[in-house]
Amino acid sequence: MSSCHRDSVESNLLPNPSIAPPRAAHDRPIIVAIVGPPNSGKSTLFNRLTGLRQKVANFPGVTVEHRMGKAKLKDQHEVFLVDLPGVYSLHPRAEDEQVTHDVLKGERPDFPKPDAVILILDATNLGRHLVLAAPILSLGLPILILLNMADDLAARGGKVDVSALAAELNCPVTLISATKGIGIESIQQFLLGTAVRLNAPPPRIELPVLQDVPKCRQWAAKLGIRASYKAPAPPLWTRRLDAIFLHPVAGPLIFLTIVIAVFQSIFSWAQPIMNGVQHFILGSGLWMKSVLPDTPWRSLLIDGVWSGVGSVVVFLPQILLLFLFIGILEDSGYLARAALIADRTMAKIGLQGKSFIPLLSAYACAVPAIMATRVIENKRDRTATIMIAPLMTCSARLPVYTLVIAAFVPNIPVLGHFLSLPAATMLSLYVLGFLAAITIARVLRSTVLRSGRSSFMLEMPPYRWPTWQSLALRLIDRARVFLRRAGTVIFSVAVVLWVLAHLPIHNGKTPPIEHSYAGMVGKTIEPAIKPLGFNWKIGIGLITSLAAREVIVGTLGTIYGIEGDEPSEGLQQAVHHDLSPAGAVALLIFFAFAMQCFSTLAVVKRETGGWKWPIFQFSYMLALAYCGSWVAFHLTNYFLG
Amino acid sequence: MGRTKRAANRGPVSTPLTLADLRSGQRCVLDRLDVPEDTARRLMELGFLPGNEVIPARRAPGGGARVFRVDGSEVALRNDTAKHIHVRRDPESDLVVLP
């Protein structure tokens, strides 16, 4: 390994861009990497520089995500910015650090070596953050060092002599505030310089041995003294807020209130918007029906595609609302406190506080939740969290629950005005998923994922106001992912199902649904699902919902639509006609436990690096679902006589 | 416990004292990390370096973990990690009033 004294850097040096012959700017895209420790404001800066011209991507073969974006500069110049994972050092130990290390050294075959680096550090915590400057400077790339949160530093009485620091490090250093937009011009100037290949790597300076953390820290401390760094006063507001949010009594109460408020608002606030979307989809479907000629194509478009995709798009408002809350909690710094409060409880089921964040996101969708498990360094903790995340009631289960509950559970009060029977049923399904998750976690942690001491180390960032820009970008990103899925997976399933439901053609006429290919598939699996109280139509739904849970609603819509019933309320009646009450309970239990989601399986495979865990996950969840709904079916039959 | 306290008052070095033994606001100097290498490195990156001052602050509600002020930031650790971090009392100062 390189002990990065001055000589070892030599081999890694790019041909000095300032002496290289000037080339056209569009020759090869110019790439500038943004590096920084966690909580240094890296992403805020990235958002400010790229705006909406960005996308999230994954390095193939590893779990680490990075974002690429384009920064538009003066005179038609542009550079690509890559936002690398937050790291404290380049010591390749965790996967994200390995990726950052490899990209910066130009050792990833799938990613070109960056032309320059922007190192962003928290100016209010400079002593510790400057440690990262050592490995970054040793790369020998053109570099700009940004000291972020200049406003915070000044407000809390801290100081730093930027030009002295620049002289010590032999490279440009600027004070900025990424949230307030202070000092952005100097970054753009640096990017422009890189775009026209004017920036040269800084002359090398003496650096400490990078493996030696105490030495590096001493080096950073010395730099701080030479740059007359005066650390700011402690963040008083953060301490005051922590006195409330981490109070032995008030803390957990606030925590519970926040969690409940988030759920309550997802259900009650999102409902009007969702109704609006639903009306729009139904209305536009009817309108298309009235203007288009009566051909099979019209049926494909309206019964197949429009109702299939529409039944899923309805859930967009709810998902976005949940991500809005998670975004606010995360950007404000509260999520770290929530993890700390949750740690003790999570420890009891063999997990840790950091698992709380992914598991909370899993209530919206397991896919981002599983990606969020990256904050957990311990591999076994992380795998256990991934394994149970899909048991949390994700929003894709909602359409199924809503449909079945509306069809079977009478709207009578349980607790006066507070809780009606349908709401209580919904709530108990959430509780059921949660209980299943903690049971499985305990089982896994004491068997296949047993490990000794697991540690929990979490930096508590100061509280900050979330910015609208960053929240909006998050939501747009989520909406894109969701709509892409609706437009691809769900669209294809809808089309394939429609085709299978209309073939084989007999004497120029489409067959009744039970004699179609789709019907035949349903009839084939009927013996296997009959013990659970499901008939062949539900069977078709179970198969199509392997792609994504919510697809079953669209599928049933398609099947009954083909049978000639009107959609919407007709769907509830049709389901009521096809399922016994016991079968309905069994169906709810099946959906609570089964792993019906290609996207989740794909992301689990990617995050665990192989097929072993996704196959295990799919199997245990299917077994749980089958046994659970069998028991539920027979118990309900027994009690209902 | 009483013995430990007396010994701690007598001199900064002689007593085996860990982060888990301290009261909130009791300044101390980090001595030695008795944890696996990987954990030690991560702790050092977070500021838990031998020679650095550490102040135990708020406990997590319900216990189990605690926030420590170290090297300009606040980091939460579980007690079972804290009890492997050896410290000595800061000879010059004692309790700090925590805001």
Structural account:
- The complex is a heterodimer of chains A (about 650) and B (about 100).
- Chain A has about 650 residues and is of the alpha/beta class.
- Chain A has a domain at about 5-225: P-loop containing nucleotide triphosphate hydrolases (Rossmann fold, 3-Layer(aba) Sandwich).
- In chain A, about 55% of the residues lie in helices and about 10% in strands.
- In chain A, helix 17 (about 365-370) packs parallel to helix 27.
- Chain A is elongated, with a radius of gyration of 28 Å.
- Chain B has helices at about 1-10, 35-45, 80, and strands at about 15-20, 30-35, 55-60, 65-70, 75-80, 85-90.
- Chain B is built from 3 helices and 6 strands, in the order H-E-E-H-E-E-E-H-E.
- Chain B starts with a helix and ends in a 10-residue tail after the last strand.
- The interface of A and B includes residues 231, 239, 248 and 345 of A.
- Strand 10 (about 455-460) of chain A pairs antiparallel with strand 5 of chain B, so a sheet runs across the interface.
